[in-house]
């Protein structure tokens, strides 16, 4: 038993302490969080735009739908279908080796890829949330003289956010974990740091189990934050 613990201690020292290798993990965590955070912002912006376009199209009478709205709705449908119908890794490889082949900016490529991918899923989440709000809310806002955009931004969307917050939290957690595939384009995130150290020490157990625990910790922190936000919003409803 003592030999087992001695071996674990030796592996831990080689994987995390020797040569300040913990710094690689720390930098990897920074890259992972940076990509996830920026991609989330892009995903929410795209998701809101696409969701509003598709909701407006669905809510209007077919005879009153203008050409520009039909065009935007068609583009939105193609966007959602293509993004949700193709693997994220393939999208990342296309962005890096085809679209951004001349620049090869890894951070920007990863950020845009994950943001565009997340936007397709977020749009469906938000659209479902908007459709769950009673139609009378929109009618009440319009009857008060508010424009469609104002009613949507000040009346409908705030109510929809409360309904979709758990789903958005799940999307953020999924996005954070999916960033591990950026290793295929050479970006030194948390997973890449473990792969580099495994290549130096020839030990896979400690580096990969270590980053698995780090990902688990990050997810637990995010889950706790989302839970606190949900409780806060429920308290505001009681008031």
Note the topology.
Layout: H1 2-17, H2 22-59, H3 67-85, H4 88-99, H5 106-132, H6 135-143, H7 148-178, H8 190-201, H9 205-238
Helix pairs in contact: 2-3, 2-5, 2-7, 2-8, 3-5, 4-5, 5-7, 6-7, 7-9, 8-9
What does this structure look like?
Helices cover 83% and strands 0% of the residues. The protein is an all-alpha fold. α3 (67-85) packs across α5 (106-132). It is elongated.
Ends apart, CA distance between termini: 59 Å
Number of strands: 0
* Class from secondary-structure proportions: mainly alpha
Name the helix and strand elements from N-terminus to C-terminus, one letter apiece.
Answer: HHHHHHHHH
| Average of pLDDT | 87
Give the uncertain stretches in residue-range form: none
Can you give keywords for this protein?
9 helices, mainly alpha, 239 residues
Task: Give a brief description.
The longest helix has 38 residues. The chain is built from 9 helices and no strands.
């Amino acid at each position: 038993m003592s030999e087992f613990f001695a071996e674990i201690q030796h592996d831990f020292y080689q994987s995390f302490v020797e040569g300040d290798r913990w710094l690689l993990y720390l930098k990897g965590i920074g890259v992972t969080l940076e990509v996830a955070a920026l991609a989330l912002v892009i995903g929410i912006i795209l998701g809101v735009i696409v969701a509003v376009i598709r909701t407006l199209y669905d809510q209007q009478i077919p005879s009153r739908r203008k050409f520009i709205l039909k065009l935007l709705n068609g583009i939105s449908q193609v966007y959602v279908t293509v993004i949700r119908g193709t693997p994220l890794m393939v999208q990342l490889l296309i962005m890096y080796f085809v679209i951004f082949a001349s620049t090869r900016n890894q951070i920007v490529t990863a950020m845009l890829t994950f943001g565009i991918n997340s936007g397709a899923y977020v749009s469906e989440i938000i659209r479902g949330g908007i459709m769950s709000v009673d139609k009378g809310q929109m009618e009440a806002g319009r009857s008060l003289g508010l424009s469609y955009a104002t009613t949507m931004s000040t009346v409908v969307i705030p109510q929809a956010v409360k309904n979709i917050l758990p789903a958005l939290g799940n999307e953020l957690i999924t996005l954070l974990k999916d960033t591990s595939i950026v290793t295929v384009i050479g970006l030194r995130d948390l997973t890449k740091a473990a792969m580099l150290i495994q290549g130096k020490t020839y030990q896979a157990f400690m580096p990969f189990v270590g980053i698995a625990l780090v990902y688990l910790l990050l997810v637990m922190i995010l889950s706790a934050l989302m839970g606190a936000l949900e409780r806060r919003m429920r308290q505001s409803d009681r008031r």
